[in-house]
Amino acid sequence: MKKFIKYKWPDEVIHALGDMGMIAPGIIQKKSYRLIEKSQSFILNVDSSKDRLLSIIPPLLASMIHEEKTQIILLGHKEELLSSSFDMKEYNKYTQYRFITSYPGTNTFEECQTIYKGIDILFTTPTKLLEYMRRQVIDTNFVSYLIYQDSHSFSSEEIREIKEIKKRLPLDCSSILYGLHHHDFLKKNIHTTLHADSSKVECTHFLCKEPYFNTEKKQVIFVESYEDILYYAEKLNVNFVIHQFMNHASQYRIMHEFNKKGGLLIVSDMASRYLSLHCDTVIHLGTTHINQYMSHLSHVLGVKHSYIYDTHITKKQLEGVVITISKEDYDTKHHLLYETIIKNPDMLQTLQTDQLITIIHHLAL
After folding, report:
1. What is the mean pLDDT of each run of 10 residues along the chain (365 residues)?
2. Rounded to whole angstroms, what are the CA distances from 180 to 147, 172, 185, 192, 325?
3. Tell me, what's the pLDDT at 157?
4. E-assigned strands of the chain?
5. CA gap 210, 223 in Å, rounded
């Protein structure tokens, strides 16, 4: 019997998060969840021999294709993907798209040349994807993520080749990720249980490249190994690791995970980018080391202030956060939740996760 991710939060919350490029935690084998970030290309490994991520894809597809015309690349059999848990017809109301399948080679390279230009969905294998990159059929500027790869997805030779391909790409245009699971000695050290009640969080996202400085002379940290993740976490005095890089549109991105206390919300790269265009302030919930973390948010264009709420925040700071949350659209929306919080700031500490998401979601509307 195949297992699928089970939603931990209601569908409407999933969709709300998807609208902003965020995704709620799902449970994989009842012991871990992963974060999925929005990007101009989105690559998922849905190997039919493994527990798959199909249940998490539809709402994400609905929002990404509709809002961003994002290219989706799914690694796996087309027939496997078109299952009851992956009913594309249900989401056809959002957009029009066509399937492109190159598994097992039913499309020529030429037929796939326009993949990156539209909202097409490519079904392929890791090896075939690598071949597309070799032949420059896929615009590698749009290949941002290669995640959830198990140890058999690429050979050691292919990994080396991917590294070589990446060296020829401008770092502010493309970043290719491959799994730590290729390294058995690292795999043993990776703790992927990231539930809200976890006493400790260890990062499962990483980027392979030496550090460099972006065009604004801000250092961008790329990590090579799990040891690097621990090193930077300690050096920066944070409970999580921030990956910063630029996409093809030269827009900064942020990804951060739940802190060791469990956290309340993930603000993804797309959410930060989206919020920066629509409000002066971004609220980040469930993190510690306020001043330290705020320095890392200074590169988010358009954001004048960034407040971080955690369990150690003072009453004055908490009131400031509440005022900031409601200030953006209180006059026009009169959201009941905002009114309630303003009258009773302490309530913010008792809100359910979906209520907190509602705050952030409405802030960006």
Report:
1. 27 36 28 28 35 36 38 41 38 36 38 38 54 56 34 60 55 26 28 26 30 34 41 47 25 24 28 33 36 37 36 42 37 43 52 49 36
2. 10, 23, 9, 12, 38
3. 74
4. 6-7, 26-27, 41-45, 71-75, 99-101, 121-124, 212-213, 219-220, 245-246, 252-253, 281-285, 305-309
5. 7
Q: Name, in order, each residue with C-beta under 8 angstroms of 187's C-beta and a sequence gap of 6 or more.
A: 151, 180, 181
Q: What range does the domain containing 107 cover?
A: 6-187
Calculate Rg over the CA atoms of the chain. Answer: 20
Q: Total structural domains in the chain?
A: 2
Residue 196 falls inside a structural domain: no
Largest Cα–Cα separation, the chain: 62
Q: The domain spanning residue 121 has which CATH number?
A: 3.40.50
- Asked whether residue 216 falls in the same domain as residue 149, the answer is no
Q: How many CB atoms lie within 10 A of CB 321?
A: 22
DSSP 190-208: ------TT-S---------
Please answer whether residues 97 and 119 qualify as being in contact, where contact means their C-beta atoms are separated by less than 8 angstroms: yes
**207 occurs within a structural domain:** no
Q: What is the pLDDT of residue 346?
A: 55
Size of the chain in residues: 365
Instruction: Write the Ramachandran bin of 273: left for phi over 0, alpha for psi from -120 to 50, otherwise beta.
Output: alpha
Bridge partners, 123 (sequence order): 74, 101
User: Are 220 and 214 spatial neighbours (Cβ–Cβ below 8 Å)?
Assistant: yes
Looking at the fold, whether 229 and 109 belong to one and the same domain comes out as: no
Whether this model's pTM surpasses 0.85: no
Indicate whether 96 belongs to any domain: yes
Phi, psi for 43 (deg, rounded to 5) = -120, 125
Q: Which of 188, 254, 225 is nearest to 20 (CA)?
A: 254
Whether residues 20 and 156 fall in one domain = yes
* CA 316 from centre of chain: 32
The SS3 call for residue 333 is: helix
pLDDT of residue 235: 56
